[in-house]
Amino acid sequence: MGQVNDLLNAKSVLSWDARVMMPRGGAETRAKQVATLSVLARDTLVADETRRLLDAAQAEIQSKDADSVEATVCAQVREALDYHDRIPAELIRRRTEMGSIGQEIWAEARAKDDFAMFAPLLADTVALNREMAEHIGYAEHPYDALMYRFEPGETVASLQPLFGRLREALRPLLQTVMSRTAPDVEFLRRPFPVDEQLAFGRTMAQRLGYDLDRGRLDTTVHPFEVSFTRNDVRITSRTNENWMPMCLFGCLHEAGHALYEQNCDPAFTRTPLATDLVGLYAVAGVSFGAHESQSRLFENHVGRSRAFWEANFGTARDAFPEQLADVDAEAFWRGVNRVAPGLIRVEADELSYDFHIMLRVDIEAGLIDGSLKVEDLPEIWNARIRQDLGLEVPNNRMGVLQDVHWSSGQIGTFCNYTIGNVMAGQLYEAATKDADVAAGVAAADYGPLLGWMVKNVHQHGRRYERNELLRRATGRTLDPEPYIAQLTQKYSEIYGI
Amino acid sequence: MGQVNDLLNAKSVLSWDARVMMPRGGAETRAKQVATLSVLARDTLVADETRRLLDAAQAEIQSKDADSVEATVCAQVREALDYHDRIPAELIRRRTEMGSIGQEIWAEARAKDDFAMFAPLLADTVALNREMAEHIGYAEHPYDALMYRFEPGETVASLQPLFGRLREALRPLLQTVMSRTAPDVEFLRRPFPVDEQLAFGRTMAQRLGYDLDRGRLDTTVHPFEVSFTRNDVRITSRTNENWMPMCLFGCLHEAGHALYEQNCDPAFTRTPLATDLVGLYAVAGVSFGAHESQSRLFENHVGRSRAFWEANFGTARDAFPEQLADVDAEAFWRGVNRVAPGLIRVEADELSYDFHIMLRVDIEAGLIDGSLKVEDLPEIWNARIRQDLGLEVPNNRMGVLQDVHWSSGQIGTFCNYTIGNVMAGQLYEAATKDADVAAGVAAADYGPLLGWMVKNVHQHGRRYERNELLRRATGRTLDPEPYIAQLTQKYSEIYGI
């Protein structure tokens, strides 16, 4: 399992390098190198030797509790073997091929605003994922099988009430907010030199607890966090000279992800408790949603809070004395929380983001169970955007063709964003019930909050399933009420509701 | 073989990253990831499946000439399998362990100037390498077996006349040079901002033909070149604000290495003709010495030539208008060719460098055949430096303890530097017999020279053994006379001999 972890970490290094450092000529042979590492990681995992060692290990630890580290590791390896055994190699090969041609077709279709050009590929992707779901198996809905790789335990049945409650609570809140006067953001559009933005983002990420001796910050087109064990956890951001929140909150978001990885129990290094053996990805976070909870918590609950800017605005003004000369902490805090629903998911504000996600999850589930047809997507998409956000979609480029995801051959990857938001709210509520955490948060000292997250979330790596982790940390499984209450409170304050 | 190449390239990416980008915390787990890739590359190479495929391939190509690409590839794979089969895995494990503890012991011994502290490790390293040599096998001298991995075909017997001739010719030349007035170099010690030095080095590397769309330049402590297929060939340099030649000639040297890799036949990508299956390293250059010939040729024959600076001094002065205000092309050319023998190999000038190498090779061969004893090394070292360079070695830190090499568990790695110098001279002489190349060189147009190198050296990758490559390119095997003649001519001109 150490070797599997090494191979997957090596693959992550090659992918980081490809996105951050690689000269453009390297793309073709790099793809082959990454593919070889993928194949060898899977081959090493499913090898007879693994099964032999696993049998021996399980025989040896029979006397241990089922929730001991040893028994958990063995159970997870067994589960991953079962998962991979169910998926024919030929299907993986077809999905890889589809992914490798898909991106180009999608990019051209999007550039030409031509949904009909993309539709056959999407139909094939749906058919292939449906086939994949049948092999993986499911109790109720084929989409459940596809979510398993990203958000194990989550099902269409569990998402429906969650999404219903979010729509019910957030739609009127968003409508009210949109009827009020928005805070000023013009000062955020002044020219902020990009190198200084990065330096400031780095400083703020460190202030959250991100350890640069075990990490680094670079720029890239599509920001991400990636770890090569807890000892090397890197983040990226992007800059816009005339929109300073992009770089800053990119840094805080990815630093939130990074904190999860940097604070996993060191004893779990190079073990299955820091390796996603189902998704074949070297990561300590237990699900994509759990991971997103940490990025959103540190980006939004911390980085967009009034207390944070009361404490840190001085640093911002030192970094940008001219740009922020006529701004104060209060105005800065209000500005970075402005709600402005738009058509593009990756640019969405905190309050409208979930509507983008719920739309995509509903469409994916409908495509997979056959209740929606590919050719109807533009109409469905545009109607939902009108209904949820009150916006007209002028073309498919700004609508159904905007995301890269479906061109990669993957379906089932979206729900974690909203689960992350909800989970962040729930964990934040539970953490701030602790007197030290609450006092720290009030005084913009986030050490106690990070300590609570390390103790209740980060250190456990992949030891507990997401809902079990939540139950241990908060006393209950996924619950949207804290998140809804927090959004309602913050935006009522900012918008004078 | 494609997989083996992918794994070795992945290992190279991880090593580049470790030396150029990695935060310090990542070192421990990165070493494990690199080790896993090494083990899997070797396992994949020596697997039964490889032997089965090789047998099948050899049966299939029986009708091909022995020097066809197909037959050459098969023969090389067979030779690599034979090599690895001869070395017990347990010995490799011991050498890896020795290397991993050795560096720390060496660093401490060097810091404390305590040879006795390092001596036991060196004795163990010698014993282990002697054991390795017995397994690898040799006709005359055990050191030949150790050089095989780096400079196949080279032997103690072939090096002795080469070294004898170099000493005979270069010692009096060096002595005469040292008796004359040295060119002024004070202007090279003015403050040159490091970012501008790097930009200038990048420009000059591009002027040699280095393709930055398939490469990149970074800074590091110990500069190197590394390739991840011909499509991604990276160089590094280092800067000293008060010694501008360091960065500049570092860039030209590594660019010379890079040209070899960037210009290998694209058809050889991911094949054994771009993979050192004996040394388990993804490289297209056929030997370490052949590789060094290209770095030294572009650094010295091109980059330190009068014609180069007559053509490029204007660019230098545009980059550094203040620092070079009172300097002209002639003075610049003379300055960057100043001879100043010193105690430290990595800082040696062109004319004294080979003496450092010959000393180390003679010591290694003597240690391996038992004619030298570890405890006598300081005395032997200091006597040779006195004899060859006329310098007194004040301590072992500046003498026998200066190099990292022996702490890595490796012996046999040094001769390629001098072979590279000699080979560069020989190839340069042959190339400039071509009228177009000669006209180009005279006019500082290096396109024809590079074209000749691509045609006669680079494109062939590892297809021909080094001496066969030399024979095809120059009509004869390794010959020091052109190199000696070129050094004599250049330094006679600069020093008015």
Can you walk through the features of this model?
- Two copies of one chain form a homodimer.
- The first copy, chain A, has 497 residues and is an all-alpha fold.
- The first copy, chain A, folds into two domains: 2-112, no CATH class; 156-495, Neurolysin, domain 3, CATH 1.10.1370.
- Helices cover 61% and strands 2% of the residues of chain A.
- Chain A is built from 20 helices and three strands.
- The first copy, chain A, has helices spanning 2-20, 27-46, 48-60, 69-86, 89-111, 115-136, 142-147, 156-179, 194-208, 245-262, 288-302, 306-319, 329-335, 353-369, 377-389, 415-431, 435-442, 447-456, 466-474, 481-495; strands at residues 217-219, 225-227, 233-237.
- Chain A has a three-stranded mixed β-sheet with strand order 1-3-2.
- In chain A, a hairpin with a 5-residue loop joins strand 2 (225-227) and strand 3 (233-237).
- In chain A, helix 6 (115-136) crosses helix 14 (353-369).
- Chain A is globular and about 70 Å long.
- Chain A starts with a helix and ends with a helix.
- The mean pLDDT of chain A is 96.
- The A-B interface holds A 2-3, 6-7, 9-11, 13-14, 17, 21-30, 32-33, 35-37, 39-40, 211-216, 228-229, 231-232, 269-270 and B 2-3, 6-7, 9-11, 13-14, 17, 21-30, 32-33, 35-37, 39-40, 211-216, 228-229, 231-232, 269-270.
- Chains A, B: Belongs to the peptidase M32 family.
- Chains A, B: Its EC number is 3.4.17.19.
- Chains A, B: Keywords: Carboxypeptidase, Hydrolase, Metal-binding, Metalloprotease, Protease, Zinc.
- Chains A, B: Its cofactor is Zn(2+).
- Chains A, B: Zn(2+) binds at residues 253, 257, 292.
